[in-house]
Write a structure and sequence with these properties.
- By secondary structure, this protein is an alpha/beta fold.
- It has a domain of about 160 residues: P-loop containing nucleotide triphosphate hydrolases (Rossmann fold).
- Strands 6-7-8-3-9-10 form a six-stranded mixed sheet, sandwiched between helices. Strands 2-1-4-5 form a four-stranded antiparallel sheet, with helices on one face.
- About 40% of the residues are buried.
- The N terminus is likely disordered.
Amino acid sequence: MSTGKITENKTQHDAVIEVKDVTKNFVVGKNTIQALKKVDLVVSATDFMVIFGPSGCGKSTLLNIILGLDKPTAGEVEIRGKKINLMSEDERAAFRAEKIGMVYQMPYWIKSLNVLENVSLPLLVRGLSQGQSLIRAKEVLADLNLSDFSGQFPTQLSGGQQQRVGLARAIVTNPWILMADEPTGNLDSKSGEDIMKLFLELNKKHKRTIVLVTHNEDYWNFGNRRVEMSDGEIIEDKRHG
């Protein structure tokens, strides 16, 4: 893959993400639901962190707060020393676009655009020319063996192929960090394993920090860090590999 390489500042702390005493409450009618309870988490540059837990345990809420898609009720989140929770909505959106690649369970497409055009979109948003964006998108699709699908529409592809295109779109901006929310949730076991192997390659070979949320315990061993959640709390954080 020609996904580029992050240049690390050796004077910086190894932590790229720091979640500090984060609580998140949701008010439903007259009731307050505590989705996260004083969560602390440090993600290092070399981590491929797999966050595991049942539905409703708070793992997706935690991911959204790290991404800045939601704000904590209390506590703070720092990414490379930048306090995400103190940024404005526009500042958080610009930070995500430049520094973080995101992969979701269901890729969202502009249906009138083909695969190549969909993958190039994040670069257009960042101000690159259409020509530059398409060249870079072609390179990334070639790296993932998806060149043959460039002219097709994403919805014409299988679920596994669509998720690989979604991953191409996530890495086209050469982000520091990749974050994934149930990226294999709608895939068969073979396609899911193929996607996990791509994440592993991006972590090991291309030095990407990866935080991946899943309910599937089978994927724990792909990462070098296992974080298990239950009822809004981290109950186990184990490094291996």
